[in-house]
Amino acid sequence: MSFDNVCKILAEKYPTDFARWLLPDEPQKIKVLKTELSIEPIRADSVTFLQTENRILHLEFQTTAKSETPIPLRMLDYFVRLVRQYDVPITQVVIFLQETSNEIAFTEEYVNEMTHHRYRVVRMWEQDSALFLDNPALLPLAPLTQTDSPQRLLSQVAQSVARISDMETRQNIAAYTEILAGLKFEKDLIQQFLGEEIMQESVIYQDILQKGDKQGEERTIIRQLNRRFGEIDSSLIDKIRVLSVEKLDDLAEGLLDFSEVSDLVAWLDEQERN
């Protein structure tokens, strides 16, 4: 399961709350920016772009410091693309979810002999829990915040979840919260405070499971195709990403039958017709 994908879902569902948390000035208007910037080779499923009146907030959620493209270089790459396309101020924030001593989690710049680019890093294990406990949109991140007592923190989180009046919202926030809590706490401890039943009732939880599995299969198939045929065209990648899980399974099984890229193109065209 992709923990950082859960955070991406939250940021896109509650963009105003994330902007208020991470920007010094409260935005009057904000929207999720769908952009063509998320392409290979720097594509990251955990990337979110939020656009305010005069600024773009670029968020990346990380569960690990490891990355095919080093994070500092990736931030510079995105920055250049965003400025070139939108020509507005850019605020970039990398949010590390799981505690680590890796120096990348404490690095806030890309430097070489000709270039110096800065961005912001938020380490969730250093954050005060109060802000997150008082805001349902940020509440799922609360278990990852600083604490000397895991039991007390999880108890506070459970109480905050219970205070959400709307049942569907409460179920979904509980599901998000329990998933992210798994980055830090043992399952038995989590379930002492966050009931498993309310999570399983959430349709959003089931959706997260499906999306996590689907994105993992997409990445595996694309890597296999690139390895076999060289880097494939982005238009083919787009067609692969809209396939259902069942069709992805069929594609994975049929890869060995493709002798050249044209076989893949023909197969994808047939799926579109069907």
Please outline what is shown here.
The chain has 274 residues and is an alpha/beta fold. Helix content is 50%, strand content 11%.
Features:
five-stranded mixed sheet, globular, 12 helices, 274 residues, 50% helix, alpha/beta
Task: Describe the structure in your own words.
This protein is α/β, with parallel strands linked by helices and 274 residues long. It is 50% helix and 11% strand. It has twelve helices and seven strands. The protein has helices at residues 3-13, 15-22, 71-86, 130-133, 150-162, 167-181, 187-193, 196-200, 203-229, 234-241, 245-254, 261-273, and strands at 31-32, 47-51, 56-62, 90-96, 109-111, 116-118, 120-123. It has a five-stranded mixed sheet with strand order 1-2-3-4-7, sandwiched between helices. Strand 2 and strand 3 (56-62) form a beta hairpin. Helix 1 (3-13) packs across helix 2, helix 5 (150-162) runs antiparallel to helix 6 (167-181) and helix 9 runs parallel beside helix 11 (245-254). The protein is globular. The model has no long low-confidence stretch (mean pLDDT 84).
